Amino acid sequence: MENNLVQKCFHCGNTTVLSLEGEYIEEEELATNIFYVQNYLFLKCVTCIKPTVQKIEKTVSRRFYLGEGDEPLVNEKLLEGEEVITTIVYPNDSINITPEPSEDMPSDIKKDFEEARAAFYNSPRSSAALLRLCVQKLCMHLGQPGKNINQDIAALVRQGLPTKIQQSLDIVRVIGNNAVHPGEIDVQDHPDTVLLLFRHGSK
């Protein structure tokens, strides 16, 4: 890991150098030679001197072997189909910990997505409902009626919508529905579930 990172500081708002002051790594072996890794970086802004904690999550496969002189070596690579997820743990506010919308997201949907981001810290349930609205509007943007999201997604699948995108839309739809119906999952008590929706909805 490089000692300095150039990125936005969420204290002062500048794109500047954040110096690496330390790091902490947690690992969990999910299967033989498959590891879930959480790397916490402790950073300091050279502009405002305030601290930032950044978390990097990834699932990797590792191959252990002996090199020259029987030196133990490790070949590590990102697991196929997985991606590296980077989040700001501190400072902790809604905009910092929720992912930004996709660049090609239609502007009216992007507005609702940004509203969902802003609401997350105080009301995860509101965020989930707004993300469901984003899916509904996206279906309409793609030529569907928008009255029944489940039917709209099914129609898009018949038109060639990739399975991975269908699954993401269904996750947002189902949990978004639960957020507004009593007796279902209380996402207010499970904000991590709503963060998962953001990751699916921002793709």
How would you characterize the overall build of this protein?
It holds the Pfam family DUF4145. There is one protein chain. The protein is an alpha+beta fold. The chain has 2 domains: 4-87; 95-202, Four Helix Bundle (Hemerythrin (Met), subunit A), CATH 1.20.120. It is built from 6 helices and 6 strands; from the N terminus they run E-E-E-E-E-E-H-H-H-H-H-H. Strands 1, 2, 3, 4, 5 and 6 form a 6-stranded antiparallel beta sheet that branches. The mean pLDDT is 82.
- The CATH architecture name of the largest domain reads Up-down Bundle
Shape: globular
Provide the helix percentage.
25-40%
Q: Uncertain regions: pLDDT < 50 for 5+ in a row?
A: none
- What is the helix/strand order? EEEEEEHHHHHH
Averaging pLDDT over every residue, what do you get? 82
Any idea of the CATH topology of the largest domain? Four Helix Bundle (Hemerythrin (Met), subunit A)
Amino-to-carboxy terminus distance: 27 Å
Largest sheet: 6 strands, antiparallel
Computed over alpha carbons, the radius of gyration is 20 Å
Q: Pairing-aware structural class of the strands and helices?
A: alpha+beta
Distinct helical segment count: 6
Strand content: 25-35%
Count of individual beta strands: 6
Return the domain count. Answer: 2
CATH class of the largest domain: Mainly Alpha
Protein name: DUF4145 domain-containing protein
Pfam families: DUF4145 (PF13643)
Domain DUF4145: 114-194
Short overview:
This protein is of the alpha+beta class and 203 residues long.
Describe the SSE topology:
Elements: E1 4-8, E2 15-31, E3 34-45, E4 51-66, E5 72-78, E6 85-90, H1 94-97, H2 107-119, H3 124-141, H4 149-158, H5 163-180, H6 191-201
Antiparallel strand pairs: 1-2, 2-3, 3-4, 4-5, 4-6
Helix pairs in contact: 2-3, 3-4, 3-5, 3-6, 4-5, 5-6
